[in-house]
Amino acid sequence: MCEIAFTLRPKMVHVTDDGVFDAPLEKVWKYLNDDTGHAHSAIKFTKILEQSDKGMTVELEVKNPDGSSHTETWKMTMNPPKGHSTEVLTGPMKGSRNTHTYTPMGNKTKVTVEGDFYAQGMDDASTKRAVLAMYEMVFNEDNTNLKNYK
Q1: Three-class SS of residue 131?
Q2: pTM
Q3: In whole angstroms, what is the distance from residue 42 CA to residue 63 CA?
Q4: CATH architecture of the domain with residue range 13-148
Q5: Please, are residues 43 and 127 in contact by the beta-carbon 8 Å criterion?
Q6: Where are the domains of the chain?
């Protein structure tokens, strides 16, 4: 008798979104790499687990829509100044992957986010809504912060 071992992968939801920052690419990239200036209300970096010239693996506290929070581990790979990729290694979105691509537009910068997402316990439509809501919040925070960033 032949036994086959396999791992079921969760169904992923493909999401694409974009926006335009009111800042040139150089300023956006500097801001994104500023440990003290780049912060978000729903994502708090708590620990750097591994770091290299290509990126880092970090532990984060992520706030849920109901106000509670959970811990995730992300592997972030940097591709300056074109963008960065993130893979969620632990937590309820484990297996999710996305890429941010930055396109210069003079004094503005277009960001395109594309990825495949899984959210434990959520259906496809709810996962997509949650991901888009998080990206909208993060984009708005970044765009506001960039206006005052030196």
Answers
A1: helix
A2: 0.89
A3: 5
A4: 2-Layer Sandwich (3.30)
A5: no
A6: 13-148
